Amino acid sequence: DLKLQFLYLIGTSHSSSPPAHTMSVVLPKKKTQPLPVLNPPAQQTRIKLDEARLQRILDPKARTIGIDRDALDAQVREKQERLAMEREAEEWMDKKRVQQDLHAVALQHETAQLKARQARDLQEYRNKFQKKGMRKDADLSDPNRVKASLPTRIGDDDPRLTVCSLQKFAGEEPGFPMRQYAQRMQMRDWVSSQIEEKNLQKERELQQDDRENAYFEAVQQKQWDLSVLHAQQRKMNTITTADFNRKMAEQKRQESTARRRREVEQNLEEIQNMLDSDILSERTMGHDRSKGMQADDIAAIKNQQAQQINQRRAKRVHELEMDAVIRARGAQDTNMGLMMEQQVEAEKRATRIKIVQENMQKAAMNAAQRAEQKRLYAAEIGEDFFRPFGVTAR
Length: 394
Known about the structure:
mainly alpha, flat
């Protein structure tokens, strides 16, 4: 008893005057009660518990700020075990549900096959043993029963009639087909006569149209003949005038030709007189020689021909040079196009590389930011956290 009182006094003294540099746990003050009288085994058990509690309180590794770490660890383990059991139960339930779904699908498929087989067997049985003609009341539901059945009496020599059979009935008409045939023939004659009348009417109308057309054609022919006659008269007048003008022109042309002929004859006579005179001293030359041309004229002609040849040659060379320039320009344009395409591809490739590098930089920055946040918000407990403790029991 004295030892227990001493332990309580120590606890109260420590809790009432804690050091200034330490942080103690403030517990609610308990009312002082008289110590209960315990039997020796209970006293020993209580003493052991108090000693274990004192060791646990004074041990900085097992102490936290008002928290029982072993109990919390036990609670965490219990919660983890419970969560693990719940996950296992959920997984087991999921597997069971999947199995049940598969079993339900298999049963549904089997049921569908069974129903289809039953329906197919039923239809085969009906087609084989329950045909429409095999029913007892098939003739009652036949829509063509009356059409297919024979009349009561075909004629006087019907073999179905006996001595007790009646021979005639009210409304009976054995000659119905003949009457229908006669009516159809009469209708055909009426229709034929109507068609014939309509054809005659159309023929009369056509004849009237032909007469009117013939009259109009005769009138138009007379008008045409008169117009042709007037045209012929105009044409004769035009021909006569043209013939007179042509004759006058021919006369003028003949007079002009005769005048030119006389002038040419006079000129030739004058030239011949000049050639026969003693004034000129020219001699006759061959047909392949130039007559009356000087050497300078011949040289000028040859020079002009040489210039023309050179011009043609220069023109041909210029055309060849232009073709070469055009081909070179085309090749240059092609090369420029290829270079531009290569440049565009290089720019696209550089853009892609730049985008990749930017993405890598962003990823690195994000990773560094996440690491920094993890470092800042990490709740790590080290020696510095436990250093202020270990002085008091509470």
